[in-house]
Amino acid sequence: MYFDYTATTKMDDEVLKTYIEVESKYYANTTSLHLFGQKCNSIYEKMIKEINNILGLENGKVIFTANATEANNLAIQGLIGNKIGKLITTKIEHPSVYEVFKHYEKLGYDVVYLDINDKGIIDLDMLKREMNKDVILVSCMWVNNIVGAIQPIKEVIDIVKEYPKTKLHVDGVQGICKIEMNFDLKKIDAFTISAHKFYGPKGLGMLLAPNTIAFEKILFGSNAQEGIKPGTLDLGLICASAKALKIYYPQTSKHYEEVKKINSLLRDKITNDKIIINSDKECSPYILSISIPNILGETLVHMFEEKEIYVSTGSSCSSKLAKPEKTIFAMTNDEKRAKSLVRISLSHLTTIKEIEFLASVINNI
Ligand code: PLP
Fold first, then answer.
1. What residues in the chain have per-residue pLDDT under 50?
2. What is the CA(192)–ligand 1 centre distance, in A?
3. How far apart are alpha carbons 192 and 60 in whole angstroms?
């Protein structure tokens, strides 16, 4: 039983069909000058238009990358460029954002990591206090990947937009196709998503830049994708990812309601009072983080695995480390709780039967 949809999802059959079809028919290089290459290039351009249309954008830049990790790196480093000044992010970003800011800190930049409250929500007053005209970049995730806390992006936009020179990056990976967007995407300078989180293929991230602003180049090579992410494009991955977005983005609300029901059923069925539920009821229903103090998260994952239940300790990138998980630690200041974490993640595909079995295993662990 798979409860690790936050780590990745299974590719949708229709999406896989698109991938195979495009890979077998349209394999020319989109930069080749011959007719076949130009045909492939026109499909690539059509996909960019389609992605813009789905997301309600007009002429937004869409840079295809290997994954969201790469998209986050290109966005943050590209927006900072060679500017000197202050940087603001949060204490609970995914490593693909957090570690980039740690790197800039080592280079001597003044980096502020916003505090969060006990529900995992960033401190907007702190953001207001820290903002000034020297801030080059603010980066704040939309939905936290450990507990599912939904950040107040609309308010972040309002605060940051008071400072016209400051750029805003939002890691949208755990929000897209899961949570209805209640903010204006056009007001964000760089927004990143990853196709494998919404039933698309692994190996494709997107860096969306709705305002078509220029990123400083980090990678050097051809002029493909305006030189921001040079190299030969994989049209199959691009078309399959656009297809996944086309299928799942319009179903965001419907799937949200379904998963919310499944999530509350699971909460109701967890009756063992040794289990601490870390995710607040206002969190994304797709994630339910629990702690069982005195048992390491890694041990718990293997205990669940014995019952053929697949869960996670948190971010897949740090799952092998017995360090306190930083989101839970920032929320609770409780090292034990932050080490004994299991992240259960749900989908519209999760069944009531699966939830009942999972709950019985949790209660008896
Ligand atoms: N950002 C968040 C919030 C994530 O949850 C993840 C992956 O779990 C990433 C970024 C990185 O995504 P990718 O696996 O596409 O590199």
1. 316-319
2. 9
3. 13
- Do residues 170 and 142 touch, judged by C-beta distance below 8 A? yes
pLDDT of residue 322: 66
What separation in angstroms does the CA of 191 have from each of 89, 182, 186, 272, 329? Answer: 14, 14, 10, 40, 26
Structure tokens at 38: 């130009």
Q: What pLDDT, on the 0 to 100 scale, is given for residue 46? A: 98
Give the three-state DSSP class for 205: strand
**According to the model, what pLDDT value does residue 320 have?**
52
Tell which one of 8, 11, 174, 325 to mutate to probe ligand 1, the residue whose CB is within 8 A of the most ligand atoms. 174
Residue with the nearest Cα to atom 13 of ligand 1?
Answer: 68
Are 201 and 235 within 8 A, CB to CB? no
Our answer on whether the CB atom of 141 is closer than 6 Å to any ligand 1 atom is yes
In whole angstroms, what is the distance from residue 92 CA to residue 98 CA? Answer: 8
User: Which ligand 1 atom minimizes the distance to the CA of 194?
Assistant: 15
Q: What is the pLDDT, as a whole number, of residue 95?
A: 97
The predicted pLDDT at position 184 comes to 97
CB of 189 closer than 6 angstroms to any ligand 1 atom = no
Q: How far apart are CA 89 and CA 345, in angstroms?
A: 25
Termini Cα distance of the chain: 16
